[in-house]
Amino acid sequence: MSIEWYVVLSSLLFAVGAMGVLIRRSPVVILLCLELMLNAGNLALVAFARMTGTADGQIFALIVMIVAAAEVVVGLGLIVAMYRNRVPMDVDELSELRG
Question: 46: which residues sit within 8 A by CB, 6+ positions away?
Fold first, then answer.
């Protein structure tokens, strides 16, 4: 399979994730769409690493996965804090979390 198919699939996954971030209002769905976008970038990095025969893209993909894990921890912590404070789960109304 050539690299073009991987890049096309990566582009489609990124577009679906971007549309989810722009359209949805639930913080959980937005986090999932962000993860989808990061995984699309990882797919492209690994495909280009395979094409060039080096491990650089795979190393960058591993770093992106670590950053994504940290993002999920912080995001889920914020969502739990919102549920505890009975804040409405709408992204447009998040101004109530200001100190």
Answer: 6, 57, 58, 61
